[in-house]
Amino acid sequence: MPISEDVLVVGGGLAGATTALAAAETGASVRLVTYKKSTMRFASGLIDILGYTPDGEGPISNPYDALASLPEAHPYSVVGEEAIREAFGLFDEVAGDSYLGGHTDANALLPTHGGTVKPTARYPKSAANGLASDGRDALLVGFESLTDLDAPLAADHMAAAGVPFSVRGVTLEFPVELRADAKVTRFAKALDADENRARRRLADAVEPHLDGAERVGFPALLGDEHGEEVRADLSATLGVDVFEVPMGPPSLAGLRLEDRFFAALDEAGVRISSGNPVVDFETDETGDRIEAVFVDRKGQRVPYHAGQFVLATGGLVGKGIDSSRERVEEPIFDCHVPHPGDRYEWSDADAFGDHAFARFGVVPDEELRPTGSDDDVEFENLRAAGGVVGGADFAAEKSGSGISLATGLVAGRNAGTEASQ
């Protein structure tokens, strides 16, 4: 029996998951097709709307106040403020009480593992005591066997950034002996299970270094299933508040968020096909509508049919946009990706300059359908969401998560509504 749904979403990151949830809310049957593991696990877990303007001004206090100044081609300008707010409402439902920040439109300022301070709209509850706007003195703790957080260096960077508190860093041995290449989840599970009284031994190792610190920041590994319990035990033993410092990939905070989104997808009845890439597609006789995509299963091309399709495969980093020495392309549907003909114009000589490649992506219409070089819609029943949509330098703006959420909501809702008619 052929595989067929009302809506088929290609891509399993934050944009793809949001798209699938939004489409399912319309009553449409939805399938999410993803090749590799979700990119959520590689993200810090911080969810931003807009931290800096495209001109580099910031950090922005209220991202909604800055929306009107964005270029017309920016994804936020395409979807509008109401969609952004609704998308963050959806996020708040999925994240539940594990995330904070929904009580205000203002950005929070969170320290990262590199010692920078990042403006963000939503942040894990586990990081709340680490807010850079908090004036309490802090101690950062890193571990010899985990190089992801160089606590003394991060503390120096935070002090140089002018945070309104005293901050120091110390590197200690983790209280449980692990392999030299142990994953961050192994550290978390050791604290979850309290192996060899790991929590008490960790607190005892930290206590001599407090020296007046009123809060202590650890790498984001303070438990997985029992994180709140781990933090409460450490805080009670140390007599100060503790917090997690958002980390780089692989990120335990990202894994936790991925679990919540995929649980929500399961609850919404979304079917998930993973581990096999989409390699081709088929249109109707007119070439205006997509009828199916082909998924490679061990060399066999299996057709997946749908009434509506959404492309949420990511940008250049996620390979949703690909490039060669000659051109930039969208590899599945060959959608138009505008770019300078001279590849030397794709980037700027200054490492922190205005790089054209950072904004490469498909150009959507008001319904998020990719358009061609003639501005006509490429396919009537194809939409795009997330990093594959061009027009924003999300890394510089600190807008990637918000763009994924907002475009995912609009693309999924439009696709689901259209499929149900």
From the structure above, extract its key features.
421 residues, alpha/beta, FAD/NAD(P)-binding domain, Rossmann fold, 2 domains, 7-stranded mixed sheet, 11 helices, 21% strand, globular, FAD/NAD-bd_sf, FAD-dep_OxRdtase_2_FAD-bd, FMN, glycerol-3-phosphate dehydrogenase (quinone) activity, Glycerol-3-phosphate dehydrogenase subunit B
Report on the structure:
Keywords: Flavoprotein, FMN, Oxidoreductase. The chain is built from eleven helices and 19 strands. The chain has about 425 residues and is of the alpha/beta class. Strands 1, 2, 11, 12, 13, 14 and 19 form a seven-stranded mixed β-sheet that branches. Strands 8-7-9-10 form a four-stranded parallel β-sheet. The protein is globular. The chain has two domains: about 5-100 and about 255-420, 3-Layer(bba) Sandwich (FAD/NAD(P)-binding domain); about 115-245, Rossmann fold, CATH 3.40.50. Helices cover about 30% and strands about 20% of the residues. It has helices spanning about 15-25, 65, 75-80, 80-95, 150-160, 185-195, 200-205, 225-240, 250-265, 395, 400-420; strands at about 5-10, 30-35, 100, 110, 115-120, 125, 140-145, 165-170, 215-220, 240-245, 270-275, 280-285, 290-295, 300-310, 320-325, 330, 365, 370, 380-385.
